Amino acid sequence: MMKAEKVLILNFGGQYTQLIARRIRECNVYCEIISSKKSAEEIKAMNPSAIVLSGGPASVYTKDAPQCDKRIFALGVPVLGICYGAQLMAQLLGGKVSMAQVREYGRAELTVDNTSPLFRGIDRVTSAWMSHTDSITSLPDGFKVIASTPNCPVAAMGDIENKLYAVQFHPEVEHTAKGMDIIRNFLFIISGLHADWTMDSLVEQTIKDIRKEVGDSDAICAISGGVDSTVAAVLVHRAIGDKLHCILVDNGLLRLNEAEDVEKLLKEEFEMDIRRVDEQETFLSALKGVTDPEEKRKAIGNTFIRVFDREAKKYDKVEFLVQGTLYPDVIESGDEMASTIKSHHNVGGLPEDMNFKLIEPLRYLFKDEVRQVGKELGIPDEILMRHPFPGPGLAIRILGEVTEERLDILRRADYIVTREIKKAGLYNSLWQAFAVLPDIHSVGVMGDDRTYSETIVLRAVTSSDGMTADWARLPYDVLDRISRQIINEVYEVNRVVYDITSKPPATIEWE
Ligand SMILES: Nc1ncnc2c1ncn2[C@@H]1O[C@H](COP(=O)(O)OP(=O)(O)OP(=O)(O)O)[C@@H](O)[C@H]1O
Ligand SMILES: O=c1[nH]c(=O)c2[nH+]cn([C@@H]3O[C@H](COP(=O)(O)O)[C@@H](O)[C@H]3O)c2[nH]1
Ligand SMILES: NC(=O)CC[C@H](N)C(=O)O
Ligand SMILES: [Mg+2]
């Protein structure tokens, strides 16, 4: 199938580049993220209908700042520059960029020229999300200012005739009130695109691509029973059928009864080759004495791969490992341009001498998009609506050393949290809700006696993609029930506290 209309996003290493792609997909337009180093000829050969330049951490006026081929502005293809991309467009076309007098982070009041096609239909005063230290201080020829904030005189500029536009703010983030309208105006009014691309075309295309890539080989799939790996497995199974072998690893870091329950559920639902391997001891011994969060993640990532390596040898010709990696796992693990936040076990935690080629069909998607793909594939809600559970499991919810005893305490507390959240009918409205076992002992009085026991932290957040999150405003009576039941049922615990930090500045997990 030829994709007639395509938007290319040139990546300058912004934290939000994938979010731009996602917003464009939400407009039912196909898009691809490509390296900013491609030449104008290469880009022209890809036949884009529009181009977007992403944000990025560098400053355009420094020596090694990433550039793009200036001739792309003369291809006759509409271009939208965002933040770094806006600044680069200004500089390459003869304008000037310098460090701003006042930096802007977060919400800003934006005044737009709504006679410009980019802002058509938008109120003159609106709000936009900013994150910059540099600003455009003089415009290239042919451009005029089409939006400003109190601290940023050139919050947007445009050259109507050549369809070149640049915005200093981030239209792709949720907090820019009219962000989607602006993106739509760029795609539909300025670039004249049609909204004719859908998620099922993505599914179809991915199945074809996988079939071609795998060829005569076999693949194993690391399946956890979580949303991502289950969707990935079903997708790959559609492509290669019985040549796919799914392996569920009981790494000893799972929740109460999880391995058995998941195995049963998966086998009931799907006619795939699924096997459970018991590796509690392997993982626990790899974690012995390890207390540093990054070391834990890497130890777990390595152990997973060793297990998969060994399991793969049980089949004839396994060349591929299928993982349900999502985009937030990739971006937080860092890449050539973005910063490392934490090494997700399945990305940054992988050993260098791994023998598999990876198949990660969901690598560019966000969780809610994966749920949509899962729906297309007919996967039941019981699986699709599960809260995310990280591959390193309870190990990154136990601060300090991971031991059988501490796992056992956390497991019992966590079970109560999930049970009560479900009973209160809150499960589907939360991104995650779980217990953490920090390394804190405190004094209490129980049954007229002094205690000096463990603390449990309750963490519950709302989020749409896991990239940003807010702590959930759980009803007091639910908090109260959870607290009392943990203390009553888990005798090692004498205190329960609630984590009221959003992401950022905290992350969702504690390690
Ligand atoms: N216990 C496990 N056994 C086998 N593979 C696993 C296990 N835990 C994680 N993985 C692999 O690591 C990947 C990343 O884990 P992650 O928790 O992000 O995804 P998931 O478990 O599939 O979905 P969810 O985010 O809903 O929990 C999984 O998609 C899967 O391929
Ligand atoms: O498979 C995974 N492997 C990991 O190493 C990992 N670390 C965090 N998470 C999950 O990702 C989301 C964002 O988490 P953080 O805010 O803690 O980074 C949350 O939903 C986390 O549960 C992981 N998932
Ligand atoms: N978010 C961005 O793209 C930032 C661009 C540039 N580094 C600045 O700080 O102004
Ligand atoms: Mg998981």
From TrEMBL:
Q: Which reaction does it catalyse?
A: XMP + L-glutamine + ATP + H2O = GMP + L-glutamate + AMP + diphosphate + 2 H(+)
Record-linked Pfam families: GATase, GMP_synt_C, NAD_synthase
Please name the SUPFAM superfamilies in this protein's record.
Adenine nucleotide alpha hydrolases-like, Class I glutamine amidotransferase-like, GMP synthetase C-terminal dimerisation domain
The GMPS ATP-PPase domain covers: 197-386
Protein keywords: ATP-binding, Glutamine amidotransferase, GMP biosynthesis, Ligase, Nucleotide-binding, Purine biosynthesis
One GO cellular component assignment for this chain's record is:
cytosol
Q: What is its EC number?
A: 6.3.5.2
Sites binding ATP sit at: 224-230
The record's InterPro entries line, in alphabetical order, gives:
Class_I_gatase-like (IPR029062), GATASE (IPR017926), GMP_synth_C (IPR001674), GMP_synth_GATase (IPR004739), GMP_synthase (IPR022955), GMPS_ATP_PPase_dom (IPR025777), NAD/GMP_synthase (IPR022310), Rossmann-like_a/b/a_fold (IPR014729)
Q: Where is the active site?
A: 83 (nucleophile), 170, 172
Could you say which residues form the signal peptide? none
Gene Ontology molecular function: any one:
ATP binding
Which pathway is recorded for this entry?
Purine metabolism; GMP biosynthesis; GMP from XMP (L-Gln route): step 1/1
NCBIfam families cross-referenced by the UniProt entry: guaA_Cterm, guaA_Nterm, PRK00074.1
Q: What does this protein do?
A: Catalyzes the synthesis of GMP from XMP.
Oligomeric state and interaction partners are given as: Homodimer.
* Full protein name: GMP synthase [glutamine-hydrolyzing]
